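Homework-ish question, so no full write-ups if that breaks the rules, but can someone show me the predicted structure for this set?
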Amino acid sequence: MVSSPQSRFAVRNAGAHWAITYAAMAGPCEILVRNGGAGGVEELASLAYAETIRIEHKFSRYRDDNVVHAINHSDGARVPVDEETSRLLHYAGQCHELSDGRFDITSGVLRRAWVFDGRVAAPDRALIQSLRGRVGWSRVQFDGTAISIQRGMEIDLGGIGKEYAADRVAELVAAAAGTSVLVNFGGDIRAIARGEDRRRWTIGIEEPGRENTAVGQIEISEGGVATSGDSHRYCIVDGVRLGHTLDPRSGWPVAGAPHSVTVIADTCTVAGFLATMAILHGPGAETFLEAQSVKYHCIR
Amino acid sequence: MRSAVTAIAATLLGSGAVAASDSGTMDSSLLIYSETGRVKAAEGVFDLSRPLGDHRTIGLRLTLDALTGASPNGATPSSRVQTFTSPSGGGSYVVKAGEVPLDDTFSDIRGALDASLKESLDRITFLNVGGHLSFERDYASIGVNSGVVREFNRRNTSLGVSAAYAHDIVSPYGGAPVPLASMPQPNADDGEEEEGGEAGPGRGKNIVDVVVGLTQVVDRNTIARLDYSLSRSSGYLNDPYKILSVVQDQNSAEPGEPADYVYEARPDTRYKQALFAEARRYIAGSVLDLSYRYFWDDWGIRSHTADVFLRLPLNGSHAIEPHFRWYHQAQANFYETYLIDGQSLPNYASADIRLAAFDAMTCGLKYSLPVAAGTHLSFTGEYYVQMGKRGPPDAFGVLREYDLFPRLDVFMVRVGFAHGL
Amino acid sequence: MLFWLGVLIALLSGCAALGVEVWERDVLAKPEMQFDNDAINRALDDHIYFSKEGSSGGRGFGGGGCGCN
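A: Not a homework solution, just the prediction itself:
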């Protein structure tokens, strides 16, 4: 089957805006562009699709031909990184400091000690301890141009990659189209208003596990939305339900966190960071979010 | 925490590198310049900048300017009509009684090309190298420059050193005149010049410049910089078209009236230095910029320049920017408004008004607006005025009746078009 | 000469105390907060003032390359 880029996305006219849809980033991707912009929608769709795939291929943990693979198989050697990767690593480092270590892109290895299939789990404490020795951004050497991580460590940009992609693609399409845009990558959303347009988009929040049933609504003309939550992925330890978000400092999932946290902030990247932080505060999620002066929605 | 992460994310996302600017920038401007009663000029600049791979940027700038009109030739006014030899291709021009002598026989076109290559060696060291070529009918210039900048303190401080060398060739119409020699009498009959200057190859000039610059981030909203520059010029530094009036002395029959005209003479080397400081601050959406330069050279010129602009944002990414500049200059030590007949000639003398003592002011207003994604248009209107003393304190005779430094009024309009910024 | 070198070193060490963290550069990243954001207009200014006044240079090289003196 011939797979030209044009066949990978679908374009639909929805009245006051166009809708571009395709599949990427392990989920449905949707881009809404208000009418009246410059250029044709096909070009905008190509632009958005190409950029989404570019970012996905560049930072995916599952590929063997990108910089993340090179870093995770570097065996302690220095790996030079380009400007964009450097900015992402820098961002990850600053978030690590800002969150007192709760945010850590080297914490991916901890998932080997846990299975989140909704069943009772008996975690292997010795394994968790040994894995904790391979976690810690402070063990990473990054000088802005090259990174070196120790043998056995790995970095995972999945937590910030999709939000970064939503922000980047939204900015690209809004700049090219000249009209307001909304990008929705499976719940990671960024809206950009252009010119004098202040019309709002309406976004429904679904209850985890009960798709197509909106339990809340958000209306934004500009900003980012991200959701952190457990949906189907949890386990039960000592009778307590634990979500799948792991605290890098302990190696354990967080107890008492909401099932789902949705945050609205200036950009999708910021919303995603705050949503993850909220989950990591467990029972204190709402208190934490109140202190941030952001709009949010928690489902417990 | 929210504002901190918003700022971190802004650095991740918004450092200006959205697709449009990855393909470079294009910047152009047209200036229309008009002095009341004197020179009119137009200058156009076209600048292109393109990245070559991740670490390199190449830049090209084309400049074209055309000027016509009259400028003071250095002589003083007289109660009689004065006739001067015209530098360009023989002939002469006449100046009415009581008027400051202006030579209006000039018009010229100049073209210049600048090329530059900037390279990022590691992410905190930058190297740049460039070349320059300029041609007009009586002047040519060729030069090279190079510099290196390094950042410190988490990129809050940067230190740069650059150097430039240029070789200029002056080929005045009618040849370069002998300094302090008398201007030949205009011969109205046959329009040919008598001897007065060498025709032949142009005269050369070498200029070496060094600049050391320090830039510092002061706080989240403020940046500052300090530059020191040193320049040495050597070779033919005279203005071949400027003369001085040799006036009859106080005890003569017509004190202050011209007896003769001589070509000017300047030293053949000049050392210039300048210290420049600038600070820019972001204040609730507006930007305020203040700068000051102190200049001094071994010709005795000392000057102060103070400059301020305030950029005020308006709706829809439009902006308005009022601007004011004040300039004060002390005269060169060989500047003479006129020479006196009978006194021995000094080694160096020039009546070029640009070496005199004067004050100048510019006020302007710029309006900028976006016209498409990544494209901006701007319109600027400016007024520049130069004011000097009416004459030296010991002016005598007929010279006391005239303003020997007539005010210069200039109106300027600019249109700018930039894409990809 | 040594004196000026000392001044420079003192300035640079003083500068080490000032500045912002990487995440505080949002305002500084704006184009209107870059010193050389209006390079063409500055070049036109330099040319005008170089041909009408006796000073040159300061912000970068001393102008010139033309016969406007």
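Now go work out the reasoning yourself. Hint: Residues 2-15 of chain C form the longest helix (14 residues).
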